[in-house]
């Protein structure tokens, strides 16, 4: 089983460019989320979704857009890349949003903004 | 607001010794779950262990156990008989019942010395 698949694994962008980070899961999970990981700051929630057609903001949503048209896919869009968005991005999913649900993570996307 | 605190940025442990990684949390909700994840140098996030707020016994998974002290709001990870492969970042996370956002601590970098 593939689990959570993120593409690309690495990306370099110029300031002002836009791009979409892809995330797909094959576990029929309702809950999906995007995090960014920066040194010394742990993982910070960008956006999340509790099901197809439903998304909401996390703690650091500015500069990012998401949509969830299917259960499987949850792409993250950078509208106009800024150097402050240089980070490692993780997509995660869980069966539901209950307090006992562990998340399954993709391998991450390392993004550099020049 | 919920918060996770990991006060040990880095730790060393001798191979075959036990080690405790600290995690304290702050929430007023009675229903919540606590999770530990491992991030090796290769970058992926691996779910290790879960403890529910209503669980009467400490969770165990192989060499991992969770020292859950509810009154002190702590959920420390204990790794017994450390192995070189345990060298990694370890993150504590909390998920509240009925609340979709997951909060992570800043992590502890564990290095196992031969």
Please bin the fraction of helical residues of chain B.
under 10%
How is the main sheet of chain A built?
7 strands, mixed
The average pLDDT score of chain A comes to: 94
Secondary-structure-derived class of chain B:
mainly beta
Poorly predicted sequence stretches spanning 5 or more consecutive residues of chain A:
none
Q: Structural class given helices, strands, pairing of chain A?
A: mainly beta
What would you say this structure looks like, in words?
- The complex is a heterodimer of chains A (114) and B (114).
- By secondary structure, chain A is mainly β.
- In chain A, 0% of the residues lie in helices and 49% in strands.
- Chain A has strands at 4-7, 10-13, 19-25, 31-37, 43-51, 54-57, 64-66, 76-78, 87-94, 104-105, 109-113.
- In chain A, the strands form two sheets. In chain A, strands 2, 4, 5, 6, 9, 10 and 11 form a seven-stranded mixed beta sheet that branches. Chain A has a four-stranded antiparallel beta sheet with strand order 1-3-8-7, with no helix packed on it.
- In chain A, a hairpin with a 2-residue loop joins β5 and β6 (54-57).
- The radius of gyration of chain A is 13 Å and the shape is globular.
- With 114 residues, chain B is mainly beta.
- In chain B, the strands form three sheets. In chain B, strands 2, 5, 6, 10, 11 and 12 form a six-stranded mixed beta sheet that branches. Chain B has a four-stranded antiparallel beta sheet with strand order 3-9-8-7, with no helix packed on it.
- Chain B has strands at 3-5, 10-14, 19-21, 24-26, 32-39, 46-52, 60-61, 64-69, 74-79, 88-96, 102-104, 108-113.
- In chain B, 0% of the residues lie in helices and 54% in strands.
- The mean pLDDT of chain B is 94.
- Classes of the chains: A mainly beta (114), B mainly beta (114).
- Chain A binds chain B through residues 31, 33, 35, 40-45, 48, 50, 56, 58-59, 88, 90, 92, 97-105, 107-108, and chain B through 4, 6, 9, 31-33, 35, 37, 43-47, 50, 52-53, 91, 93, 95-107.
